[in-house]
């Protein structure tokens, strides 16, 4: 007799597969939540760096303008 022929054993195998799928889904959900959080944090860091870059650019441009005025 094949173990797949026994409905009780087949049902146990199905339960094990379903439990395994549930664990994988939970792991993927947790990973997705973590990645979304990291993504949000990286966007915030990028915005901060972009602001700093713009401020530095403005300061450099202002210094260049002052230097050009001094040449006259």
Account of the protein in words:
It is a single chain. With 72 residues, the chain is mostly helical. It has one domain (3-71). Helix content is 90%, strand content 0%. It has one helix at 7-71. It is rod-shaped.
Summarize the structure.
By secondary structure, the protein is an all-alpha fold. Helix content is 90%, strand content 0%.
What general form does the structure show? rod-shaped
What order do the helices and strands follow?
H
Counted up, domains total: 1
Distance between the termini: 102 Å
Give the fraction of residues assigned to helices. Answer: over 70%
Quantity of strands, as a count: 0
Which range does the strand content fall in? under 5%
Radius of gyration: 30 Å
Give average pLDDT, whole number. Answer: 94
Secondary structure: elements and pairs:
Blueprint: H1 7-71
Keywords for this entry:
single chain, 72 residues, 1 helix
């Amino acid at each position: 007799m094949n173990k797949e022929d026994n409905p009780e054993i087949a049902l146990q195998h199905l339960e094990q597969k379903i439990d395994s799928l549930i664990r994988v889904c939970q792991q993927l959900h947790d990973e997705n939540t973590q990645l979304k959080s990291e993504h949000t944090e990286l966007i915030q860091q990028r915005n901060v760096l972009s602001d700093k870059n713009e401020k530095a650019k403005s300061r450099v441009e202002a210094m260049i303008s002052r230097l050009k005025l001094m040449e006259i």
